[in-house]
From TrEMBL:
GO terms for biological process: proteolysis. This is S9 family peptidase. It holds the Pfam family Peptidase_S9. The lineage of its organism: Bacteria, Pseudomonadati, Pseudomonadota, Alphaproteobacteria, Hyphomonadales. Gene3D superfamilies: alpha/beta hydrolase. It comes from Henriciella barbarensis. The keyword Zinc does not apply. Residues 1-19 form the signal peptide. It comes from the Bacteria. Keywords: Hydrolase, Signal. One of its GO terms (molecular function) is serine-type endopeptidase activity. Residues 467-680 form the Peptidase S9 prolyl oligopeptidase catalytic domain.
Amino acid sequence: MKRLLIILACLWLPFWTSAQGGYGDALRNSTTFHDYLRAPALSSVELSPNGRWLTGVKRNHEGIFVFVSDLDNPQAQTVDLPFDESTFVNWVEWANDDWLITSVTVYGTFDGQIYTRAGLNYYTFSGFETMPIPVTRLYLLRRDGSGVQRVFEGVKSLEKRNLNLGRIVSFLPNDPDHFLVAATLRGDLDLFRVQVSTGAHERIGVGKKGTIGWYADINGEPALRVDANRRGTRYTYYGRQDRPNGRTSWKRLKSVRADERAETIKQSTEFRPLSPGAVTGTYYVAARPAGEPTTGIHLYDFTTDTYVRPIRVDPDRDIEDALINPESYEYLGSRYYEDLLKTEFTDQTMQAHMDGLSGMFETAVNIDWTDSSRDGKRWLVYASGPQEPGTYYVYDVENAHIRNYGSAFPNLSPYRLSPVEIVKYRARDGLEITGYLTMPKGVGDGVIPPVVVMPHGGPEMRDTITFDPLAQILAGNGYAVFQPNFRGSSGYGLEFADAGRRQWGKAMQHDIEDGFAHLIAAGKADPSNACIFGYSYGGYAALAAATMTPDLFKCVIAASGPSDLLEMLNWVRDEDGSRSDEYEYWTRHIGDPRRDRDELAAHSPARLAQYVKAPVLMIHGHEDAVVPVEQSSLMVEALNEAGKSVEFVELYRSGHSHRMAGDQRKEMEAIIGFLDSHLAVDPQIWSFSGE
């Protein structure tokens, strides 16, 4: 049974480097940047509904392939369907046991030039006329690779107006000959039902100018419409209302802040639809109803905007994802993070199998139950963790037998990857904080490596024990990486999140400082050999450290972060309106520019540049719609005027978090080069004794 897939409308795709590309300099642990940042060799692996067939995307030195394997006949040859040098395969899914749906992207220019994957990997911005534009389409094909057809092929009203026609809304598991896809028609994002076997389509939902996504009900009809503000930072959900006269209207239900950086399970969730409920008009949602201390799984009636009943709620932690049978819409269990990913099934037999799988691994590993056959006898699971970059396993439930199907990153040896340890400490006011310390693999006894303190963005997000490519790159070059979940982080309930309100540069900053002090006291950090580095809110925290505790760190890296809180709030007000939900959120979280002007100015790093002592590296995407690039420009200008050491790397083709390949390479080279210039790494730091 396939888990429900909801893809909101987004033209700017996350980008991995191609397998042909590479970075120049190796890291000190004999790996390279490219080993961590390359596209996975194996991805989008899915079981057919009957559990016999496995499909996915495979990348190797020969190119990109969609493969199909017969699990009942392991000796049978795997079918590999190749794609040319200009095509990126985003994902593949089963429409039914016989047909596949795959999403592909080609990058070209307005004058018709098409980029190869290798060419994109080395592209650098030289003008908009040569800038690669992604064009995404869906293809239908039979299991043996025959019968290939492009969805909406020849429909000029759709193909000429949509760069992205790959926005699946539902695979309709109870209607195997149809699926739902969103596409722009006459300026708005509409919902279409497409027939698998013929490609025929009909429009079943009409969006508005700001519509970015849809959710379907148990009957495959539009249930929820999602609209966004102009910057895409706030979502408003509307529920379908069926009137007695046969007409349909849309009722405004919830307005929530969107965050593009995190996995949804790691975000603070006020309201997020997960799956249709078993009764028409209901939906399973991850939500935190008014007065509740944590996010939980609830059954929600979108026709009346009421919560029917709680399904899974924990008073001490946020539960933000559910496992739902997509055919019966029965609640099967929940997924959430403590430190590692935890999966809880309601069925004790299923839980026993999951516990057995978790016990197989000696190191810290997240076991993600990604797919199951319709009868539940065959599972697909994905194992990942700090020293396990990602491996797919096929599990035979009846025989309790597991088969390693393949690694997503075969070039990364677990032997070279760095372990993560949990760090518990008390902030100066007594609040308990959890953080994670990635130590370079094989550090000799008594050796204290240089430390990079790396607070996360959000700030209502969190870090967990997982395979973190950036932390592993830094550890692979000899740096310990400390990631504190300071107050204001998600995952620990509303009270912990609220403790961070209006604490920018204050209590949240103290939590980061106190975590570093804890490491020093524990003999795990050298106070004279550490840097602070962060993205988004983490970028602000890095600049706050540079200006408010200027003697604490030897160097500072701030990426995509605010530097002037007053100017940032003024920009949000101008962009979204003084009465908008988004502006209200930020004034509640940071402060009110009218009432708190002096306090906000006193905690704005761009106004405190004269206090900076450490060298600063600023990084920002030119197309950032969350924190404008002008925020970094303000800081750079202030530092230059104060005569301070500053470097600025502007990424002309990137946004707040998404990076294109050339920009990604440029960014990583700047980060590693800057750290190497200011932190001392003992060349004998490792004591490897052989593979």
